[in-house]
Structures are given as structure tokens and as C-alpha cells.
């Protein structure tokens, strides 16, 4: 069996997309009209370092992931057995499964990116070397209760999220622990995938009501539940994803238990491929 996985923020880079814009000229023009700027120029040239800004990063990744998937379909004429995406990459998984067309998916991602970019004062950091229970224990023992776990990326790669000053306060505490190999502050403006995104979640949920989402043709593994999306909960789960942890480790473990599974990363970079390799090494099947 084969699972296609679609990357999220952190995978973007100058030059991504390459010849894909020429391969999908009509969709590129459609994206330009919707966005009000050249998606090709944004991805190839990265003017003013816009690719590091959430409101530009998310649409750019959706477009490149979508084009990469369509190119893969042209080359293989075969769909995967499962799809999954990391954070905003989940919109590409839903696109691949037929929940919405390219234009609708891009509209949703544009709104999501705009809303998330308005959140300031937050921060995120990756803790490398501790498992989820150890991270939670450190937070509790040091009265860092205002920090949430945002991403369970791999068994010993956990991302935390909260107010910037709390993340800075946590830094020396984690760095003093021998088992911590690294504490990396992420280049984000907000405390994504945490309780502090509730207002964004509520506004995005209202925005979603204007769209029709279609029956899924493939199982899509949800970041929120690490299980396949339920058709009747598509919009609710998409909204929940904004405040919920990305359960990537559990999602991959769920897919591993489905049988002999090959994972293929569809989109720029190999970040998810690396995480999956770590999960396979460190995690047992559920």
C-alpha cells in the first residue's frame, strides 16, 4: 500500500516549483487571479523574503503540493491508498481525495493563512531529545502551564507553543536537561496549534460554512485525531485543526499498522520523509 504525505510550513524554499508552473499554466493563471500576485514569482524568486510570512507561505505550499500531486498522477496514472498532510499540507490531502477543487482549496488556505498571520506575540519551539510525556512533565514541574504541545512530529521531536515570553522562559530549562539535544525557536509570529488560536478557529469555522465539501474518494488521515476523516465532520475537523496538536507520530503509526506501507512525500523538500524515518526507528506499532 502507498500513502502520499504533503508537507506544511517549514518546507518552503526559494525556487520551489521549478517547471511545474509551465506544466499547469491554466491553474497557475487561476491562482494568480485569486491571489492578486504571481505565484510563480513568489516561489521562484521569493521577493522581499515573502515566503517566510504565513499569509504567503500557506498558499504557496498549497499550490506547489497540488501541482506536485497532479504531476504524479500524470506520471503514474494511479492514486494512493491513503493521504495525509502536515498542518496546512492536510488541505492537499483533502484536495487529492476530492473534498474540493483547486480553486476552493486555495481560497480556504488563503483565508487560513491571513487569519493566522494576524496573530502576534506568540512563539513556538522544537524540543529534540525528549518524548511527549517528558516534555509535558517538564512543563508541569516548572509551572509552564501556559504552554501547549503543538506538534508531535516524531517520538522525540515535540513542538511547543505559547506566548513568546513563555517560550523564552522555557528555553534555559529545557537546555539544562542532558537528554535535550536541541531547543530550536521557530520563525513564526503566533502560537499556532494551541489554545491561543481560538478566535482564528471560530472565524475560520464561520468562513467554511459558505463552501460545499464533497465526499472523500480516499481515506485522509486527520492531524487532530490521527484517524481517517469522517465525512460528516469535514468542516468541524478542519476548524479544530487550528487549535489542536498535529498528531503526526500517531498518524504514521496508524498507517503502519494498516499493513506494508510505502510513504511518498509529495511537494517541496524531504522534511516529512525524515520524520517518518525517525518514527519507524523509534516508535512501535499501535
UniProtKB/TrEMBL annotation:
It is an enzyme of class 2 (transferase). Belongs to the fabD family. The keyword Glycoprotein does not apply. The active site is at 87, 193. InterPro entries: Ac_transferase_dom_sf (IPR001227), Acyl_transferase_dom (IPR014043), Acyl_Trfase/lysoPLipase (IPR016035), Mal-CoA-ACP_Trans/PKS_FabD (IPR050858), Malonyl_CoA-ACP_transAc (IPR024925), Malonyl_CoA-ACP_transAc_FabD (IPR004410), Malonyl_transacylase_ACP-bd (IPR016036). SUPFAM superfamilies: FabD/lysophospholipase-like (SSF52151), Probable ACP-binding domain of malonyl-CoA ACP transacylase (SSF55048). Keywords: Acyltransferase, Transferase. GO terms for molecular function: [acyl-carrier-protein] S-malonyltransferase activity. The keyword Lyase does not apply. The gene is pksC. Gene3D superfamilies: Malonyl-CoA ACP transacylase, ACP-binding, Malonyl-Coenzyme A Acyl Carrier Protein, domain 2. One of its GO terms (biological process) is fatty acid biosynthetic process. It comes from the Bacteria. This is Malonyl CoA-acyl carrier protein transacylase. It catalyses: holo-[ACP] + malonyl-CoA = malonyl-[ACP] + CoA. GO terms for cellular component: cytosol. Its EC number is 2.3.1.39. Residues 5-286 form the Malonyl-CoA:ACP transacylase (MAT) domain.
